[in-house]
Amino acid sequence: MNYEDKPRPGKGFLLVIQLSLAGPLLIMTVIGAIAETGTHLWLALAPGIVILVLVYSFLLHAAYSTVYSIDGGALKMRGGFIKGNVELATVRTISKTGSVTTTLGWGFGSRAICNRFSDIVVLKTSKEKIFISPTDPDIFIEQLRSLIPDSAPQQSSSTGDVR
Q1: What is the count of structural domains for the chain?
Q2: Does a structural domain hold residue 105?
Q3: Alpha helix locations (H) across 102-155?
Q4: What is the pTM of this model?
Q5: What's the CA gap between 59 and 79, in Å, rounded?
């Protein structure tokens, strides 16, 4: 059975991306206005502007190219240039949580490929927690549970009890 989900980015996620670009650009503009105006200042600021535009482009690409697919006993995830796989046989619990602040990247014992801050699905294996943001978390959880050997228990997000 194959299942693929291409969630749209959340408004909050897009707002954070825009603010992460607007803040540094505003600071550089203020610095430019306070300092002597001239070509040398803008040449000095140009590398920073180029870096900001590249980061902004990467985040937008990640926001609009997030894909989760279930195929051949594995969950394949992609958000921009970040990719990951999870063997469904290693999943111990599946839960749904209201919100999360981690969207793209790896942490200590966790990784996330999300393009929203809300309606997050958390997969726990023996080694890590994986955060994803499918379009419809309930349908996605059903799809996962139907393919997981011995059906990993679903954990309630409000009580922490395993059902």
Answers
A1: 1
A2: yes
A3: 137-147
A4: 0.76
A5: 9
- pLDDT of 35 strictly over 90: no
Is 134 in contact with 31 (CB distance < 8 Å)? no
In a domain, 50, yes or no: yes
- 104 in Cβ contact with 62 (< 8 Å): yes
Residues 129/113, Cβ–Cβ less than 8 Å: no
Instruction: Tell me how far the alpha carbon of residue 14 is from its chain's centroid.
Output: 12
Is the pLDDT at 163 greater than 60, yes or no?
A: no
Per residue in 88-108, pLDDT (tens digit) is: 989 999 999 877 776 666 667
Mean pLDDT of 121-130: 91
One-letter amino acid of 11: K
HSE value, Cβ hemisphere, 13 Å, CA-based, for 75: 27
Q: Is residue 150 part of a domain?
A: yes
DSSP secondary structure of 69-95 = EEETTEEEEEETTEEEEEEGGGEEEEE
Whether pLDDT at 161 is above 80: no
Paired sense of beta strands 91-99 and 110-113, if any: unpaired
In a domain, 163, yes or no: no
